[in-house]
From TrEMBL:
Keyword Protease carried by entry: no
Coiled-coil intervals: none
Native source organism of the sequence: Lutispora saccharofermentans
Protein name as it appears in the record: Type 1 encapsulin shell protein
Superkingdom, taxonomy of origin: Bacteria
InterPro entries: ENCAP, Encapsulin_nc
Location in the cell: Encapsulin nanocompartment
Chief place of localization: other
Family that this chain belongs to: Belongs to the encapsulin family. Family 1 subfamily.
Keywords: Encapsulin nanocompartment
A matching Pfam family: Linocin_M18
SUPFAM superfamilies: Major capsid protein gp5
Length: 271
């Protein structure tokens, strides 16, 4: 039996394909971190731990005839999940009438998982020891001006990029902002005839994203190349069959995923 336990369900292969399609479509509408982070994997559900290197400190050291790796730690890849139920009567009714099965509950669970993934990417989980882009110790913090006035957003991001270059972080840059900051940049810049957001987007070659998990007044600029950070995936997002309860069918949308920050100096937080 596979890990997702689909063989134990009475669902047809065609319905499983519909569930898979609904889950992927719903998640893609929300996922933000994956849009600018390099994906390492999928490695498979059997990969429970993964190495995270400090790219500037990792090296082999020898002592007393033993060789170990300095600047490397092994971290468990957590499981992100959300459950949903399909009513047996609804499945039978759709089958009898020839109607498509209503998979809104599967879509809702996939959306919840997508938000949890982005929450983990941006904020980590301090209690469990996971670092996020906005919580990683050692990341550069810069004071944010009022982005609803003048050309403050442009000058802030330009200063952030200058900091990255000064610290030898070259390559691809990406900017993630909260929805309120995204909307504040939707205005004409005096004397240019350009929207502020278009000027900012040009600084990062169009890699500007908004995410609701950032709340309000938050922005983070990163050097997103693989050498600086990536997103390790064991099991990619999929639906698993849990059980039949009260004749209804219970499922779990799950994934195993972990942000790996290899260079803290590749992160600029505006606050």
């Amino acid at each position: 039996m596979s890990y997702l336990s689909r063989e134990s369900s009475p669902l047809s292969e065609a319905l499983w394909k519909q569930i898979d399609s609904a889950v992927v479509k719903a998640a893609r509408n929300i996922l933000t971190g994956r849009r600018f982070l390099h994906i390492f994997g999928p490695l498979g559900i059997g990969t429970q731990n993964i190495a995270i290197d400090d790219a500037d400190a990792v090296k082999e050291v020898e002592k007393d005839g033993l060789i170990t790796t300095q600047g490397r730690k092994f971290v468990e890849i957590p499981t992100v999940y959300d459950d949903f139920t399909l009513l047996a009567k609804d499945l039978e009714s759709a089958k009898k009438a020839g109607f498509p099965t209503d998979l809104s509950q599967a879509e809702k669970a996939a959306e919840a998982c997508a938000l949890k993934e982005d929450q983990l990417i941006f904020f980590g989980n301090a209690e469990l020891g996971y670092e996020g882009l906005l919580t990683a110790p050692g990341a550069k913090k810069m004071a944010k001006k009022d982005w609803s006035a003048d050309e403050n957003a442009f000058t802030d991001i330009a200063a952030g990029i200058a900091y990255l270059v000064e610290n030898s972080i070259y390559g691809t840059y990406a900017l993630a902002v909260s929805p309120d900051l995204y909307m504040q940049m939707q205005r004409l810049q005096p004397g240019t005839g350009l929207l502020e957001i278009d000027r900012v987007a040009k600084l990062v070659n169009g890699r500007l994203y908004q995410s609701s998990v950032l709340g309000r007044g938050k922005a983070v600029l990163v050097g997103s190349d693989e050498k600086n950070m990536d997103l390790a995936i064991g099991q990619d997002m999929a639906a698993a069959y849990l059980e039949q309860k009260d004749l209804n069918h219970v499922f779990r949308v799950l994934e195993t995923v972990l942000l790996r920050i290899k260079r803290k100096q590749a992160i600029v937080i505006f606050e």
